[in-house]
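Please, structure for the following, as tokens.
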Amino acid sequence: MTATSPDLIRPVLTVTSLTKKFGDFIAVDDVSFDLMPGASLGIVGESGSGKTTTARILAGLERPTSGTVTLAGEVVEGHSRGDRLRRARQLQMIFQDPYGSFDPRLTIAQAIAEPMKLHAPGSTREQRARVNELLDQVGLSSRAGESLPRDLSGGQRQRAAIARALGIAPRVLVLDEAVAALDVSIQAQILTLLDRLRRDTGIAYVFVSHDLAVVRHITDTAIVMRHGRVVERGETEQILRSPQHPYTRLLLHSIPSPDWDLEQVARDRRALDRH
């Protein structure tokens, strides 16, 4: 009988009673969840639900008011440069529009190499080989690698951002509305890429989205957030097939379709107001 590595049976990311206040406004209210290695968790909700603030806390871009984030078995607390580097080594974040996260003066290949210089130092030859490997892994040509960010399409820039994040082999990738700004056909390509990368590398995803069709495609489990709180959680397919909370039902019934029932949406809204 083969022993199972402890790293594969304990969560790679644990969020416990996370709360974030901006003055008197509570943006995130007592949020908790676990993420297992190689798993994909969706965080679902409308604008203002607290999902993006939660993601930014995970990435260290916001400090929680209270609660803890445990990453790879270590509670993340400090905000010194060393603390930020340790967090970044384990967790990377992809934004809806990655253009602003690229230095416009650097080629894509140079941008992909930058994090490796901090987290995985090696010879110039080794780094160049790794960059070429990453470009190939995300379906970008060497010509794209020689281009500046402004010369690429939105889909190509998103692939480049994924390659840059993968360069240091993080345990967790947080994707905040990562395909929302892309055309539907390009969305499908990026989602297929992410699914393949997860199978190939064992990386875990936290996928933040308002789009339930995207969440269904890319996640195993999900939490639904409203007004900063988790109102429903479970296996993604089960939640979407048989939602228990009125808010989740409202989200599902609000998706435009040929048989869209506006009266059902109104009934869902009334039920939610009574909840």
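The two ends are 51 Å apart (CA to CA). The chain is about 45% helix and 25% strand.
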